[in-house]
């Protein structure tokens, strides 16, 4: 399997899913994970809206390092595909908020678009962005090209820098 095929598989997983699992670091060093619906901007940035009072948002205010996994939990056991990534998260800066809010909500017609004022104080949501550092794709152990030949899955880097 070529790097191009691995990259295409990873892009397909990202494009096909609306939820990602966001992992943040609590003050005591423990992990906190939460699902959020997201909009990808290629494979470099991932956007979501959350309350600044949520556990993960408070964690990000203290430590912006995140881990993310994007996967389809509806597939049969043993058929999973997933993309893992590490990133640095931030609040979307005020000067980018209008454009990025429109971009974020464009993936979700059911949201009817966020008004920028809904994402500023005193309202309860903010727009966040994770800027990716590294990506990997999960390859099933039984994959004919990159599998381990066992039941052990492996991760392969995609979009290497």
Automatic annotation (TrEMBL):
One of its GO terms (molecular function) is coenzyme F420 binding. It comes from the Bacteria. It holds the Pfam family PNPOx_N. GO terms for cellular component: cytosol. Keywords: Oxidoreductase. The keyword Oxidoreductase applies. Residues 7-108 form the Pyridoxamine 5'-phosphate oxidase N-terminal domain. Signal peptide: none annotated. The keyword Oxidoreductase applies. This is Nitroimidazol reductase NimA-like FMN-containing flavoprotein (Pyridoxamine 5'-phosphate oxidase superfamily). It comes from Kribbella amoyensis.
